[in-house]
Amino acid sequence: MGGPQSPGGPGLARALDAALDASVVGGFSRLGYLLRRGVERWGPPPGIPGANAVVVGASSGIGRAIAVGLAAAGAEVCLVGRDERRLAEAAAAADRARVAGSAGSAGSAGDGRPARTASVDVTDAVATGAFVRRLADEHDRLTVLVHAAGNLLRRHTVVADGTEATVATHVLAPFRLTLLLAPLLRAGGGRIVTVSSGGMYLARLDVARLDPGPAAYDGRRSYALAKRAQVVLADLWADRLGGDVASYAQHPGWVDTPGLASGLPGFTHLGPLLRRPDEGADTAVWLAAGGALPERRGFYHDRHRRSLHRLPATTMPPATAAAEAAALWGFCAERTGLGADT
């Protein structure tokens, strides 16, 4: 399923991966993806015919590429986003991938129903609740839930309920949707994949600073804090949802997306070193398709489980980390009205 299979043996693959990971630039760039894929001889993600998947943030960038990849693997995909035109274009791309997947596997991978779209602002509790009810009317289980919606804002911005938009989009919206979909995920032995970012390595979990006011707002700092919180939440879901539900977080590397261009324009100067969206999406699709089994949790990059910390300043003693994680769950439960007893 994509583990090290290099011509020089697993030792060479491990040594190359470790060197790329330590270099950061080599590992996060397109170079790292191409080298790992080539040396380890990655195959396509496992086929998942008959699976159903919800991909949030699927109208563009990495989310769109994940939806397309899951459709190619045989899943029935529901693409969730806010822009109806871009959602329709992404759904058409997913359908083309589904048909191509079917043809390439003698009809076994892509015969599912066409992709569907749902125009939903997932920071809106009412709209999210209505979407979940519609989904539950149509399905008695859910195989895959992918959280890929994101933003990186330079100015303090709030959503309809007054919450700062970064924490609302990256933390509270995924928490709300995951808890509402928990019964379907449990019934389906579901897999949750959260698209985080290597930017989370720059911050330690600090719940008190997750929802800053205008005076304290720093866009990059808020983004890093929210991405760190996502990784912690992914681990908490693995603990608290129970059953056979798996929960992973992953970072896609440096990917050429509209969000990167608007939020971190300096990265566009990396040019050919930036990954294509489908390359950034590869590990998310692989995880969603069960590539990491029997592991059912963890933080991944390029089909390998990774350390949660790179800088000493982001680490905490175990007891402190556990207390901060509990505080994060409490913060989300209070803000969403969900999960207090989970």
Structural commentary:
With 342 residues, the chain is an alpha/beta fold. The protein folds into 2 domains: 1-43, no CATH class; 46-336, NAD(P)-binding Rossmann-like Domain (Rossmann fold, 3-Layer(aba) Sandwich), CATH 3.40.50. The chain is built from 11 helices and 8 strands. It has helices at residues 10-23, 25-28, 30-40, 61-72, 84-104, 125-138, 165-187, 219-240, 258-263, 277-288, 318-336; strands at 52-56, 76-81, 116-119, 144-147, 191-195, 246-250, 297-301, 304-305. Strands 3-2-1-4-5-6-7-8 form an 8-stranded mixed sheet, with helices on both faces. Helix 4 (61-72) links the parallel strand 1 and strand 2 (76-81). Helix 7 (165-187) packs across helix 11. The longest helix has 23 residues, at 165-187. The radius of gyration is 19 Å and the shape is globular. The model is unreliable at 106-110 (pLDDT under 50).
Secondary structure: elements and pairs:
Layout: H1 10-23, H2 25-28, H3 30-40, E1 52-56, H4 61-72, E2 76-81, H5 84-104, E3 116-119, H6 125-138, E4 144-147, H7 165-187, E5 191-195, H8 219-240, E6 246-250, H9 258-263, H10 277-288, E7 297-301, E8 304-305, H11 318-336
Parallel strand pairs: 1-2, 1-4, 2-3, 4-5, 5-6, 6-7
Antiparallel strand pairs: 7-8
Helix pairs in contact: 1-3, 4-5, 4-10, 6-7, 7-8, 7-11
Q: What is the N-to-C succession of helices and strands?
A: HHHEHEHEHEHEHEHHEEH
Poorly predicted ranges:
106-110
Report the mean per-residue pLDDT as an integer: 91
Report the β-strand fraction as a percent range: 5-15%
Distance between the termini: 33 Å
Rounded to an integer in angstroms, the radius of gyration calculated over CA atoms is: 19 Å
CATH architecture of the largest domain: 3-Layer(aba) Sandwich
Fraction of residues in H or I helices: 40-55%
Tertiary shape: globular
CATH homologous superfamily heading of the largest domain:
NAD(P)-binding Rossmann-like Domain
CATH fold-level assignment of the largest domain? Rossmann fold
* Alpha-beta classification: alpha/beta
Strand order of the largest sheet: 3-2-1-4-5-6-7-8
- The count of domains is 2
Number of helices: 11
CATH level 1 class label of the largest domain: Alpha Beta
Write down how many β-strands occur, each being a DSSP E stretch of 2 or more residues: 8
Major sheet characteristics: 8 strands, mixed
